[in-house]
Amino acid sequence: MSLDLTRRDLILADHLIDGRWCGAAAGARFAVTDPADGSLVSEVPDASAEDARAAVDAAQRALPAWRAKPARERAQVLKRWHAAILAHQEDLGRLISREQGKPLAEGRGEIAYAASYVEWFAEQAVRANGEVIPAPVGGRRLLALREPVGVVAVITPWNFPAAMIARKIAPALAAGCTVVGKPAEDTPLTSLALARLAQEAGVPDGVLNLVTASRAQAAAVVDVWLADARVRKISFTGSTPVGKHLARASADTLKRLSLELGGNAPFLVFDDADLDAAVQGLMASKFRNGGQTCVCPNRIYVQDGVHDAFVDKLAGRVAALKVGPASAADSQIGPMINARAVDKIARHVEDAVAQGARVVTGGRRLEALGPNYYAPTVLAGATPRMQLSCEETFGPVAPVFRFRDEAEVLALANDTPFGLAAYFYTRDIARAHRVASALESGIVGVNEGAISTDVAPFGGVKESGYGREGSVHGLDDYLQIKYVCEGGLG
Q1: Fewer CB within 10 Å, N- or C-terminus of the chain?
Q2: 439 and 474, same structural domain?
Q3: Cβ within 8 Å of residue 241, ≥6 positions away
Q4: Is 3 inside a domain boundary?
């Protein structure tokens, strides 16, 4: 795909620190490549600890003025940023598709999704209300004030480079916090473009700071933020092992954490389900972004009575998916992010087949298209012993497990350390309430596969993390409560 954008200046190759676009202090850079063909897209700075400290210095200097700015003024800045994002939806969508690989239609859709968080938190900025508490004795007034936590570090993944950073930065700025951030090494360009638009919308110097770092340098950057007591909160989306490291390493300064970590989402189809609706819901939730989402169904459980019919319907839809680069207008599944991702997918499928699973469709690399492509796949006869049952595949593979009754499938669905998302289809209203309550998950879709929205709380339980993004609860994660007791009023 060509990167002939309407605004070429949105292709940025520098850090943003204290309002200045600059290279790394040590001068190092690393390559950003197109996963469709490995071609060079750009080179960006490879940050060091010095860059990370400079970003915190800028954020700390900018904090007093930004937190003191009236909430309505912060909201107006965010509204201008929202308008700018939508005005440049095509350019930003092309950037996403080029550096991340998703089809252009999905890239455009992600920009609209990212913008929705900016708009939502612009509206919430003026609603960070405190409380007046009835005093237990006369002559006093008790207040509970909600104040910004301070400097926030945000660390985002590669699969949704616009949406993930927008739904962290927008509530932070709305609350009156300042931000230091590190986008994923595979997909930094979209985040940098969003930061340029934020600048143009009126975000003051130092309020938003972004540094880019290679995989080799990421720890050096984040370790500075973990150790710095001025950074009062970290918001991270990524793997559970990294989330656990952040939790341990932030203990010395008792930072607040929002962790949206790994998933292993079950998708349950009961005998009484509308099968066409269930297949459509699975297609929407499983194959978006090529299966590279944290809320993708990873284990599809189908009850005996409809199992074969469901597999046939699903296989027909999956076999018809068009695979190709974002530059092809009819592409529905793009490349995986890198070779490591394809190797993991292939390993999971090979392990499943070796243990008795049957490939209904797909099940192979698409090397004629390039090294990072894998065919959308449906496997029948999956069992809990297989690697794909306990590890998140993060690719376009739908393994189907057979189950007998509700008690059995709930035990299987909950038999995981993760609890981010879960889905099920049934037309029995009593079962709908019962199963939704029984599933150990932070997000549940009932007869619905597309569940993400800015107005609802997004986050998990168990080893899928804690904290919520989006909704009114998403602002709370960037605010702290101050109790004020006013005496001598009688």
Answers
A1: C
A2: no
A3: none
A4: no
Q: Which amino acid is at 276?
A: D
Q: What is the CATH number of the domain that holds 150?
A: 3.40.605.10
60-69 per-position pLDDT tens digit: 999 999 999 9
Q: Are 246 and 227 in contact (CB under 8 A)?
A: no
Give the model confidence (pLDDT) of 200-210 as tens digits: 999 999 999 99
Cα separation, 466 vs 129, in Å, equals 23
Asked about 260 being catalytic, the answer comes back as yes
Predicted confidence (pLDDT) per residue in 399-434, tens digit? 999 999 999 999 999 999 999 999 999 999 999 999
- Residue 260's H or E segment, with its range, is strand 256-260
Which tokens hold the place of 266? 């079950």
Is residue 255 included in any domain, yes or no? yes
383 lies in which domain range? Answer: 266-446
Helix (H) or strand (E) holding 434: helix 429-438
| DSSP code of residue 323 | B
Q: How many CA atoms lie within 13 A of 269 on its CB side?
A: 29
Looking at the DSSP bridge assignments, the partners of residue 299 are 266
The H-assigned helical ranges of 30-162 are 49-68, 71-87, 89-100, 104-124
| Residues 190 and 336 both lie in one domain | no
**376 lies in the same domain as 299:** yes
User: Which uninterrupted H or E stretch holds 361?
Assistant: strand 358-361
Here the tokens at position 104 are 């252009």
